[in-house]
Description:
The complex is a heterodimer. Chain A is an alpha+beta fold. Chain A contains 20 helices and four strands. By secondary structure, chain B is mostly helical. The longest helix of chain B is centred in the N-terminal third of the chain and has 29 residues, at 2-30.
Amino acid sequence: MPSPKGIWSIITASSVGTLIEWYDFYIFGSLSTIIAVKFFPSGNPTTALLSTLATFAAGFIVRPFGALVFGRLGDIIGRKYTFLLTLVLMGSSTFLIGCIPSYATIGGWAPFLVLLLRLLQGLALGGEYGGAATYVAEHSPAHRRGYFTSWIQTTATLGLFISLGVILSIRRIVGVEEFTNGNGWRYPFLLSIVLVIVSIIIRMKMSESPLFAKLKKEGNTSKNPLKESFGHKLNFKMVLLALFGATMGQGVIWYTGQFYAQSFILTKCNIEYEQANTIILIALLIATPFFVVFGSLSDKWGRKHIMLAGMLLGILLYRPIFNQLFKIADRTGLAAIATETKNSEMKDKDGTVVLTRVMTANFADGSSSKITTKQKTGTPDVITKQIVLNDSGKWKMVGLVALMVLFVTMVYGPIAAFLVELFPTRIRYTSMSLPYHIGNGVFGGLVPFIATLITTIPGTNHLSGLWYPIGVASLCFVIGVFFLPNKIDKQVTD
Amino acid sequence: MNHTRRITGLLCILIAVAAIVILITSAVHNIESGGKTDISKPIPWIIIIAVFTPIAAGLAIFGWYAWKKEYNNE
Lengths: 494, 74
């Protein structure tokens, strides 16, 4: 085992690279509205198709596929070179997205290239996590495996934090107009190359995992990790247990606590963009250290109890928490102390007159609302609403989101150690990557789609979409309670 | 505990079948020609059903193993 100083350089090198990969993956999602305008103009069926593929195929198909491709590679040639490769692939794809001329400049090539690069991002992400978690776990002493691997677990949330921070900062520096309609949105993508180069230099200096190096020296590495992982019943049973007893529930808790919460605050509560993202940023900052706290506690209490407790809290408290978020933003019944209405008229690109009415209202509690109505002949009115909360409302929302991220830290903090301990070294990268990416990419990634689907059912309301994550987490919880062991596997050299 | 595992296994098989049936009927119900939103376009449904079918099969296999006492304590 490495010295205490050595393990920290291993954790830093692994975590920084994984963090950058998450950052790269998230900026595309966070800037998807601008990307849609630049590369996938509406009204064109081909670009609409490519846009849909970029949204759905990257997460649902390519991520699990990346887990298989790079997992296999990692179990054959080694962890170090495989997750170095995923980093190069992710960094160069992200940088190139920032370089592609818009649809207005090069036409159909633009959406095609963006789709291709987005798919490469998904592929790289599918290969990164398993490598980093395995690499750190195989360097960690048994009694602190949960603690050391939990640093890898912080990267997904910190990646979101940094992506939001960079986007908000650049938006402020260059101005909203330049960021949205000029080239400002490209800077977060271009910045990625600097981060990736630094990370590659750090990772190049790392040596191979000692457990894998030993296996390789003895000639005991797997010749066909895919067949061993999924073709041998004993191991396949463990893959199924990892998926349905842990990662499936973890994926929906993770997605709901971070991304669905963000989307809910923006679209259902109508909180102003910058305030909504600031709320998320502060909540992430408050809760992130708990990944390490719960990772460390899992070394004492076992992985299962902490993960399932996080899942149960999500199941029981999601609806009251989201209901409270909605109530905080609801201005119904509040009397405005000052109102103002402004009307303006301008011509659209096609020469049609667009009437815009902006109604602002200030309330006694210090909050305000702005309702914009755009009327254009022959099309339905477009109404947008923006609410700016007072400090009290803002901090209440921060507290509620931080609470949900706390549930995320409970299920997500110990899971790397849990997955590593479930599988043998020779097929560990492959076996743990697939359930992780199906749990997070497919079950987690389906949250917005299924939530929207549920709200189409008559009689449903703004909270009904939560039945999907609650249902999936409940099934996973039941399977976890009855099937998962709570033991901490001291021996991962098998 | 072992008896509960068998019941849970049976429940998993039923949920796997129900999930696929619900997804397919929802797709048929929601897809519209020239649909503008994701749930009214065919491509997301094709991707989701194609990806989810083997996962549901996996859940059913898990349930079957549980029913056959493959996960039971010795």
